[in-house]
Amino acid sequence: MRLSELMHAHVIDPDCNDLGSVDDVRLVQDGPVLQPFGAAFRVDGLVLGRRAIGTRLGYYRGDVVGPWLLRALFRRLQRRAKYVPWEAVQTWDGDVVRIATRGNQLGLPPEPAGAGERP
Predict the structure, then answer these.
(1) Burial class of residue 60, CB neighbours in 10 A (0-12, 13-18, 19+)
(2) Whole-structure pTM over 0.85, yes or no?
């Protein structure tokens, strides 16, 4: 699977509601070790919604430092983004992702592990 093929696919819930498009894919690097790159990546979940740009830029996390106006704007828009755990995906035909969870049961994207920590 290529992530570029998954991006912008429409997501449909069990009630046939179009929940929006896949605007970001959350990856976790915990797969088998591939030399020389380290652990392989796996898909952890999908971020839906046309206003997920703040998510991609990391503005939904509390530790992102940036212009306060952008931070406030993206955090407000972020409330409309939805997160689908990969386990909820039933099928994907290249254009449409069908999930087992109803749209009103989806939450916001969780903060990545280590968010808020600074080196």
Answers:
(1) buried
(2) no
> How many whole angstroms separate alpha carbon 77 and alpha carbon 92?
27
CATH number at residue 92: 2.30.30.240
C-alpha gyration radius of the chain: 15
d(CA 110, CA 45): 10
Q: Do 70 and 58 touch, CB atoms closer than 8 A?
A: no
Tokens found for residue 81: 């983004």
Give the pLDDT confidence of 45-70 residue by residue, as tens digits.
Answer: 998 875 555 555 655 555 556 676 76
Number of domains the chain contains: 1
Residue recorded with tokens 């449909």: 12
DSSP 84: E
How many other C-beta atoms can be found within 10 angstroms of the C-beta atom of residue 97? 22
Give pLDDT tens digits for 64-94. Answer: 566 767 666 666 666 667 899 999 999 999 8
Q: Is residue 113 part of a domain?
A: no
